[in-house]
Amino acid sequence: MASLLIQPINFTKMKKHTVILGHLAPVFCLSFDSTGQRIITVSPPLLGADDDLAKIWCSRTGQLVTTLRGHHAEITDLSVCWDNTLIATGSLDKLVRVWCGHTSSPLAVLSGHSGHITSVQLSPSPDDDSK
User: Fold this and answer.
1) CATH number, domain 19-122, options 1.20.1300.10, 3.30.70.420, 2.130.10.10, 2.40.10.10
2) pTM (two decimals)
3) Which end of the chain is more exposed for a tag (fewer CB within 10 A), N or C?
4) Where exactly are the transmembrane stretches of this chain (predicted)?
């Protein structure tokens, strides 16, 4: 029976790779792309600060690649499509914004929600032509 239990992870063998500074508040949402080469982060705005932004970082160097702008309230979640073609962000502004995963260009703004967006999840389509 003991062999069926999940074994604990030994975190003592882990080491810090890099520290990234760039948001005005602590990061509370983070996602890696499927290659592990990019990290996408969001952080809540501080009182009086304008940080309703998602930022894309190089995971190897820690350098800022680009900033995704457009939300007018706190971003609450983000999702990266399995093939890195899309990034979606949801916000307390009741909008979901969809960005090109390759160029970071805005592709769509999904409106019509009556409440705050609290979760976003991109899922693969069974038909590649209907992304």
Assistant:
1) 2.130.10.10
2) 0.79
3) N
4) none
